[in-house]
Structure formats: structure tokens, C-alpha cells
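Appendix B. One record, verbatim.
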Amino acid sequence: MELLAPAGNWESFIAAMENGADAVYMGGREFSARQYAANFEIEEIKKAVEYAHVRGRKVYITVNTLIDESEFDAVLDFVFQLQESGIDALIVQDIGLLSVLPEVFPDLALHASTQMTIHNQAGAELLKANGVKRVVLARELSREETAAIHKAVPDIELEIFVHGALCYSYSGQCLLSSVVGGRSGNRGRCAQPCRLPYRLCSSRREYANVRGNYPLSPADLCLIQHLPEIKAAGVTALKIEGRMKRSEYVAVVTRVYRQALTLLKAGEWRVFPEMMEDLAGIFNRTFTTGLWSGERAGILNPSRPNNRGVYIGRVSEQRPGGLTGIHLKKNLRTGDGIEFWVKSGRNPAAVVQSIEVNGKQVQEAEAGSVAFVAIEGRTSPGDRVFRTHDSLLIKEARGSITENGPGGKVGIRARVEVREGQPLKITLATREGLKAEACTVSPAVVAEKKPLEPDDVYEKINRLGNTPFYLEDFQLDMGEGLMVPFSEINEARRRAASVLEAKILEQSKPPAISREEFVKACKKEEKKKEEDLPFGQVSMPKLAVFAATLELAESALVAGADLAYVPIAGLEKRDEKWWEDIRVLQESAAKRGQQLVLALPRIAGPLEKIPWENIEEVGPNGVLVSNPGAFIEASRRGFKVFGDYPLNTFNPEAARFWPEKGAEHVCLSPELSLKQLRNWPQDLLARSEILVHGDLVLMVSAYCPWIGLGLAKPGRCGQVCRSDDFCLVDRRDYRFPIRSDVNCRVHLFNSRTLCLLEELPVLMAMGFASLRVEAWLGTAEATREVVRSYRKAVDRLREGLLVELEPLKEDIKRFAHSEFSKIHFYRGVI
């Protein structure tokens, strides 16, 4: 399995290379999902590619953000430069970009980012059919689910995260940072609001956060002890998260996982305690195996969102002046950073400047002793102490971060021939058989004084310090009593090494297109855009409603909605009666000339069963799909398919992709602004749906906050989540409703209700196929009033009549459960 390490800057790149990474993933200055990392200029990327390739390693570049229409020319030019520099693969999120890349760059290897939320077999199938070589799977998949994907699509590479930070939401399905601060995670600028404190409240009470104030903060993933299972599941690559982490973190984690993989390959599998200590010592928020083994407990760490460190002992006493005794369970050194976990107030922290043991000053105190250190702040006997900065571990890590260091060198063989009257000949060869030769200018002559000794020749040939090579085998064929100038031997060695390096780089560089071919391919793509897909002329947009329950759906249809989406994995129980009721609702809608579309689950794992037989019995007017796998499954079964906004349709190319695959229309990303949409071709808007009102889902998660906070237990939770209407309250007292669906996936909603009623004249003039209301949380009466108001406004605007929108807005405000917001309609995202 390939070990893939992160690099947010050059030092981290060297840390990865020198500590055993097979490949490194990094981002450029733009179009990367970690825009707050230092990232790389194109010249640095070229340098990194050469550094990696000569050592037999690989470099993958992340272009894993949603691409705005105005950025397409720039991103394609950037990709041209990347493929020209010889990168090994491009990691992509945007389906629009992904649809164009194989046409422009036919030989460029493409990896689908975890931001694409690929979590089932059909999703992997769709991407493979569209030129993707490797899929970075969603982090929420179990061992069995991963193996099922590999079995179903064995000829696509699978990559999983094995270590580092987890997102609370499925990657690619989070709008929290985007909505609360305008910094979009889908655009690489996540502000990590999930790491902030929240209070859990319900309609009846506020819950004491007995396990901490950070209910959305996950622990850190660590799967090192599961590497044999991961290999058996068919995983190709092991990914370490951490492009925002310091280089020492990259060095330590890469080194430890390389050690584990070496043991696995040698058939001596085990994980030593010191390996786990190093992983915990460099950074941890406590460790979890996520859902890999099916466990739901311990994934969230509500007690703290930052580095926990390593437990080293407890306070024994605190003397006047702040000198504090610690009964040590582990060694403590000067230069270490420590934190005291006190029962109330702020936790004191300090960098250890001096240590006193038994009245004497020491540089290191051993486990079992009582060490006194000076701190500011009050502690009490029994308070726990954690080391948050391990000075020795950091020092060792820093020592490994050296260009051309021993950890990154490639072993070569050298053969030297010395014959009288002939130049000394050096042949350097790699294990794979590449060879380079060089000779001295002067021929070997009989020595007048001191002839060459074998050790002299070996010493000169072994001077490979500034090269990527080390000498692992040496052969010498030399006559007796001969001499060649040392300076010429050194020069010949340098030339041979340089030629060998050039040959390795030439052989390792993937094929690339020329600038002329690139320009030609781009013009061809531009021409394709001018060819309209056939579509019916839209005289007015449909009014659609996503209704989380049957009651809300019936209210919406009665109030005049043209189309109702009803989720088969919504917020209410699904049983035979529900399916009978949905059949009745479908029949009554059909009699009124309305459409009923069943919404497939937003997340549907590879072992989850979609009730296709029940869906076929209902006979809906189509299905709404939120992930690529569902799109494929529904299309195969002959259903009319509507694309939902979790597909992240953010640009015209993405809006073309789904209808070209057969979609009736696709709901656009709620992160798009009016300014952006005004630049889109009208024929695409005529096949698009836009959200205009309602409850926007900001996160979808597999991690239960009620379990994390200790209010429920895995396997016997008692459905606490359904006992009341819950919300999370942030530091500014904004209330974010939180619900779980019938599949126990958690939905976090915005604290404000989207309302674009006053923007209807603009939206209708733009010619959208459908305007959509999201009805998740309101009452049936509220839904009915919202749909009636929008119905009245749309009808009057269609007829060219004046309509007073402000009074209609005031009417629906009376039933609203939160204040209104236009969210991104005018401000957009960065």
C-alpha cells in the first residue's frame, strides 16, 4: 500500500520525503482545499516533482475546490503547467472540472477528492467511467463497506484517510463555515466552526454539557493498528491528513506509519507502544478508529477541540509562588510544554524552564519521581498534567528534515574499471537497471610514488552527499600500481551521478501535451459549449417543495406546489403504512396534475438497501438524487432523475454534466450568488433549480452528538434525538436546529430561514426551470402559508401583473420559526 503524506510547505515536503512517504499531496496557491496553508508556487512544484521522482516517489496536486465559472480558464492553464511539470496525478472535487479534464489532458491521472463524498460502489463506477483512476473514499466507511466497493469496482484504486483530523460532516457536504462566516469549505477556506463551543438545548430545557462544550468536535483518526485489515479490504493508498500541520508532525507520523508498513511487509506485524506514544506525543485530540470497525463511541471529543497531549502525571502539591510538584508517570524534560487540567477556571500551561527533583536541578526527571516546576496559575493535588510539546520528539523530527538526507536517498550500484593507459571508467546503476557512465580525462598511469588503493577509490565514489543517491554496492576492477588524479575521479563521479539523475527523471515523467495541443483542446471544449442540449421552452418555473414528512408534502401540494420531493429517509418512521400513504398521496397529486418525486438518501453506503420495489410500487414522477452513486442506480432502473444541490453544481460545466447524463434538471449549489448566476448561459438556467426558501441543511454527519455528550449509548440509545426538538446554540446565541433521520444520520440546519421572495422578479426573468422551498422543520400550517405566498407571487409575475411582495413576506413571517436571511444570494462566498 502506498503511504501518502501531506505537505503544506517545502519543509513539510522534505519531512515527508525523508521519513518514508511513497507519495506527497500538496496544493498550489489557488484551487486547493487548504487555502490557509502556505502552499506552493509552480516553480516549487516543479522542484518538488524532480526531488520526488529521482527518489522513486510521487507528487499529487490538489485542485479540490469548487471552481467558479470565471476561474475556468485560469484553472485549466494551471493544470497545463502542472502536467508539464510532470506531476503524477491531480486530485479533483468539482464535477464540472472533472468532466473537462480528460478531454483536454487525456494522459493526466485523476484522483477524486474525498470532497466528492464517494461512499458507494455506483459512485466509484461513475467516476471510473469518467476518467478517474483513484477515489479518495468518504472517511465514514467501515471495513466491510470499503471491501464491498473494492469487490464491485476492483479496477479503480481506493485511497482512505488513516490518520489525522476528522470533519464532523461528510466532506463536501458542509455549509456551516460558508453560511456563518462566508468562508466556504468547498472553496478551501473552512474556518472550522465545528471546533467552537455550542450548548445543546431543546424546546424544554438546556442540557449540561457534562463531557464538554464542543459537541461537534471529532477526535483524531488513527488506524495504524488496522493496517492488515485495510490491506485485505483492497485499499491502494493510506492518506495522512495534515497540510495545515507543522513539518515535525508530518515527519513523525510518516516515520511511524512507514515503520508499521515495513513490519507488515516483512510478516512481522505489530505496533510497538513507543510508536503509539510518538503519534500521541506529536498531536492528538484523543484517537479514534472512526467508523472503520463499526464503533460509534469515542468518535467525538467534546472536552477540547485542540491538542490533548500525553498524560504524564498528577499534581502532588503546589508551594507558595507557583512551584508545583508533579508525581510523574512519564519522563519530563526542560523545554517540554505542559498543561494542567484543573477542575475549574482556565488550565495553567507552561514551557518547562527548570526542573527540581529532591532539591536538585536536573535537565530530565524520570517517571516515578516528583518533579517541581514553576507555573503561573492555581492547581490542586490530583489535577492531571499533560505534555503538549515533547521537546525530544520535536528535536528528533527536526533532525530528519534535511534535504538530501539519508532517509530519502536511493540505493545505487557502482562499478569502477581502472586499466593502464585508459581513462578510469565509472558506471552507476539503479536497482531497476538504469545506467550512467563517465570517465576521467587522463588515462591511468603507473604511479611514481603512491598508487591508488581500493579504499581510495571507494572513498571518492562514495562521496554522494549532495546527490539523491547512496552507495549500496561497489565493484572495483583495477590493475596494480596505477594512479589517476583524485580531482578527476571526483569530477567523473559527479558527471555520472548527474547523468543518472537526468535519466531517472526522463523515465519517470508522465506524458504531457504541448501548449499548441492545449490551446487546440480548449477551443474544442469552447465549441462544445455552444451546442445547446435540447430542452423544452420554459414559460414559467415550477414551484417545488422538499417536504421532510408526508404531512408537510400534503400541505405543500394542497397549497399549490407543482412538485413535491419526499425523502424516503426523512425525519419520520418508514413502515408499510408510510408506503401506503405515499401511494395515496401520489395518486391524489396526479389527479391534480402535480408531480411527486421520491428523494433518495443523501448518503447511502454500499451495504445499505434502497427499497426499489417499494419505490416502483409508488410509481413516482421521478427520483431526486444527492450523490453520484444514486444517480447511476436510478438511471439504470429507468427512473426520471432530478439532481439535488448536494451534488455541488457550482459552474456551467457541472450544470451541463448531469443533464448530459440524463437528469431532468439539477438544483444548483446554495453557495452561488446572483452575480455569478447572471454570467451563466440561459439554456443552462432553464435546466436548473434554485433554492428560494426554507431550512438549509448545513451539515450531514454519521457521528451522533447525543452519544458524544453522554446522553445516549451506542446500540441502546433510546432515540433520545427524537424525544424533543433539539438545537445547538453558539456563543452569539444563534440556534441551529439539529435532527437525526431514520438512518441515524444527523442533520444540522441553519439558524436563519432562507427567504428570496422579494427576489422572485429577478429569478423568474432569468428563466430557471424550478424554484424550490425546503420544508424540514416548520408546521403544516407554516408550509401551507409559504407555498401559497410563493404560488401567488409566481402566478402574478408570470401574467405580468404587479404583486406586492413585502406583505406576502410579512404573512409568512408570522409562521416562521427563525429570522429570514438571503444567505449567499448577494454576498457569495470566498
